[in-house]
Write a structure and sequence with these properties.
Blueprint lengths: L1 E3 L4 E5 L10 E4 L2 E3 L3 E2 H4 E9 L10 E4 L4 E5 L4 E6 L5 E7 L10 E7 L2 E6 L3 E5 L5 E6 L6 E5 L2 E5 L8 E6 L3 E7 L15 E4 L2 E4 L6 E6 L2 E9 L16 H8 L5 E9 L4 E8 L2 E8 L4 E5 L2 E2 L7 E3 L3 E3 L2 E7 H6 L6 H4 L10 E8 L2
Parallel strand pairs: 4-26, 5-27
Antiparallel strand pairs: 1-4, 2-3, 2-22, 6-31, 7-8, 8-9, 9-10, 11-12, 12-13, 13-14, 15-16, 16-17, 17-18, 19-20, 20-21, 21-22, 23-24, 24-25, 25-26, 27-28, 29-30, 30-31
């Protein structure tokens, strides 16, 4: 069952960087009490069991190239696993604290064709070939926590990595444009997410925590695309001012009276976009269709087609596929509720494995 949202939510569509009060479309979206079901949202679900020598700790970063998957683990140890497209481990590379590529200085792993880039300190890239051997180095013209590189070019989110003036920078061999000036009065926090950039149509989406606007980079222009007006529950920007200690910041953002985007966005087919937000102290998933002007908040996604698992939230999207990661421990905790057909697919040591879910979204 669904109930009407607590407040009217306004969606602002921009054709250029106009005042957010212009061209506003207002409507009352729905807030769903149940999770989004795979059967009503996807054409296909594939599940890969990844058997690593040791159980993966924490939540590894999932990456995909045309020929391989990669898992980048950073919790107890820092290890990069290369997998084939069926989930079989082909190679691995462990990073030491005092090695040539010190684990503590790795800020991101990126892919470029069959090359893997290990970014240190936000701007120094060591390139590896498909056998995980070093083949070269590069200094990027931009120091940033998050780099996003594809056919459209290069865009970066600095995320307070140094004392710069801008949060968004686009570049090739040099910086080409700047956007979103750094608010030095606000509390300086590290916004750790997995999908702040996402390819969508002929450009790239961007979402930032405590900023209720989703941005779009297309044709060299970075502009607001959709502004979410959460009404009385919108997080007051002034709450980020005057905060000096992490516990105080944590108390503020956990308050049930506020709703805000957390900086995770997923481009889907056509006019659809997903994003994550906090709502009444709960992390939720929003599905938005700009063509039908529909928006629904869900508490997550449930696989009711193959495994019965709560997929919770995706890690990234690409070419109409949402990617999720689930630990073998989570599978084990829900073993009694798993369908027999899925149980038969599990290895004997499944509880030590890691599972990648590939959800192909309906067009």
């Amino acid at each position: 069952m669904t109930s009407r949202l607590f407040a009217v939510l306004a969606v602002v569509l921009f054709s250029s960087c106009k005042d957010p009060t212009e061209e506003t479309l207002s409507y009352v979206p729905e807030r769903s009490d149940r999770p989004l079901l795979v059967s009503e949202f996807a054409d296909r679900l594939d599940v890969l069991e990844v058997q690593t020598p040791y159980p993966i700790s924490g939540v590894p970063v999932i990456l995909r190239s045309d020929r391989y998957f990669y898992l980048f683990e950073t919790e107890m140890v820092t290890t990069l696993y290369q997998l084939d497209l069926k989930g079989k481990v082909l190679r691995s590379l462990q990073f030491e604290e005092d090695g040539r590529l010190p684990a503590a200085y790795i800020t991101q792993v990126i892919l470029e064709g069959d090359r893997i880039g290990i970014i240190l300190s936000g701007d120094r890239v060591t390139w590896l070939d498909e056998k995980l051997n070093e083949i070269g180095e590069e200094i990027l013209p931009v120091k940033a926590k998050v780099h996003f590189q594809d056919d459209f070019g290069n865009i970066a989110f600095t995320n307070r990595i140094e004392d710069g003036d801008w949060e968004i920078l686009t570049y090739d061999s040099v910086v080409r444009s700047r956007a979103l000036p750094v608010d030095r009065e606000a509390y300086s926090f590290y916004n750790h997410t997995y999908s702040q950039f996402s390819q969508w149509r002929e450009g790239v989406l961007f979402s930032r925590a405590f900023n209720d606007t989703i941005y779009f980079w297309e044709g060299g222009e970075f502009r607001p695309l959709v502004h979410i007006d959460l009404g009385a529950r919108a997080f007051p920007r002034e709450k980020l001012y005057g905060v000096t200690h992490p516990p105080d910041f944590g108390k503020i953002i956990r308050s049930p009276e506020y709703s805000y985007l957390i900086g995770e966005v997923f481009g889907l087919h056509g006019q659809r976009i997903m994003f994550q937000l906090m709502d009444e102290s709960r992390r939720k998933l929003a599905l938005m269709d700009l063509s039908s002007k529909q928006l629904t908040f869900y508490p997550g996604i449930i696989d009711n087609s193959m495994t019965g698992m709560n997929l919770v939230f995706p890690q990234f999207s690409e070419d109409g596929i949402l990617y999720f990661g689930i630990s073998g421990e989570e599978i084990q905790e829900n073993y009694g509720a798993l369908p027999a057909s899925f149980k038969h697919r599990l290895s004997e040591t499944y509880d030590e494995s890691y599972f990648i879910y590939l959800l192909k979204v309906k067009k």
